Amino acid sequence: MGLHFASGSNGSVVRGLALSNFGRGQLSAVQSSNHIFAGNYIGLRPDGLGGSNFARGGGNVGIRLYYAQNVIIGGTTPTDRNVISGVNNDGVQMEDGAAYNHVIGNYIGLHPNGVDRRQCQRPN
Q: Which pTM was predicted?
């Protein structure tokens, strides 16, 4: 598991990180709310390439929300954009009780240039 926000971590902001090669979610929020995840590389290294296994080295799930509410993933400006690519499963996964969340302006399954494909195994 990568960076994980559990109950009591409400209102956390994650910006400017590169998270890859973790077994479960690269970035996850569970039973928490009001987070902002913006301007990150998820499933990619800081240079925009895949994890240690270039083809699918990013880990299992990009961003996972489980019983998480009011989470903003991305935003309206290019600096808010997350690039979520190269993971083995879903780019963004919302499960059981995830509600009132917003996924805005991200590149999911694309290279950071926004043109070339670097898809997730199960793009969403």
A: 0.88
